[in-house]
Specification:
Elements (H helix, E strand, L loop, with lengths): L1 E2 L5 E2 L1 E5 L27 H13 L4 E5 L9 H9 L6 E6 L4 H11 L3 E5 L5 H8 L4 H11 L6 E8 L8 H7 L6 E6 L7 H7 L3 H10 L3 E2 L10 E4 L6 E5 L12 E4 L4 E3 L8 E2 L9 H12 L25
Parallel strand pairs: 3-4, 3-12, 4-5, 5-6, 6-7, 7-8, 8-11
Antiparallel strand pairs: 1-2, 9-10, 10-11, 12-13, 13-14
The chain binds S-adenosylmethionine (SAM).
S-adenosylmethionine binds next to β5 and β7.
Length: 323
Amino acid sequence: MLQDAHGREFSYLRLSITDVCNYRCNYCLPDGYQCESKQQHLSLDEIKTLVSAFARNGIEKVRITGGEPSLRRDLCDIITVIKNTPGIKKVALTTNAHQLDRHVKAWANAGLDALNVSCDSLDGRMLKAIIGRNNLTELLNGLAIAQTTTISSIKINTVLLKQYNYAQIQDLIAWVKDKPISLRFIELMQTLDNKVYFEKNHVSAQHVADKLTAEGWQAIQRSKSAGPAKEFYHPDSLGKVGFIAPYSKDFCQSCNRLRISSLGKLHLCLFGEAGHDLRPLLTKDKQHQLDACIDALLNDKPLSHFLHQGISGCTSDLAMLGG
Ligand code: SAM
């Protein structure tokens, strides 16, 4: 199992397959995706070599992310290749719900185990204000279809935004009451590009968690290897509620994830200073070098990010790496 110098073990890889996104979320890409030059994203063969190397070294779960991963025409092939990699137990996908209703069955048939769908509001007008469009029809239809497939875990990601959806979070909690869907509130993170927006919109996830506790929600004990998310259940709700609270104390202590950019760079932290290029090693004859390189790089994983001090590393937006 991959381990860093601080004793943390890594079983989870977040793999960006494109940095292109078709939405304009105001906290991420308010002006839309800006294409400086045409990028060569990892090919299916490179993804196969890369995931095999990480799986040989103990990675069991791969989350496909982006940009918007559904924009890649070969997404089903990517899911299947990862699913068929010896050692990989779980393939997950994070999507903005673009054409979810059209594609989710095919993703399930390709081997997808877990689906996270970003949904910042159930109110079409609010959605338009946050993400630049009202995608509720394809999102809700897509989720209904997803529930009929073999996908065993469905989660909703909602970024907490003081000036936008914060007053509506009870609607989302009420909505999952009769659904086997987990709601994940994500604390807004500061990036290089959203500093002013961040200052106006950041809300502490702990504040919401405290409110839930007062309303009878109870924390679910999770294993140390389960990662930094906190999850709550309520006896009257089928759906659970969780939090990703990167500004909370000790958040990085339970970090169990590594990130690969769509250009094949290993990022040891979402808010690190740079990625380490693995691409030159993504050929079949360089397996040993690739394994040794990943192992050596892990020693440089920092103990914590410096988000509390307003330092976002080289991360201009989360579409760059997939969150
Ligand atoms: N396009 C896909 C999607 O929208 O789910 C995957 C990539 S997106 C970068 C992954 C997640 O990061 C989404 O749930 C999005 O809402 C979240 N996100 C983006 N920027 C963020 C920020 N500054 N703080 C917190 N979450 C953010």
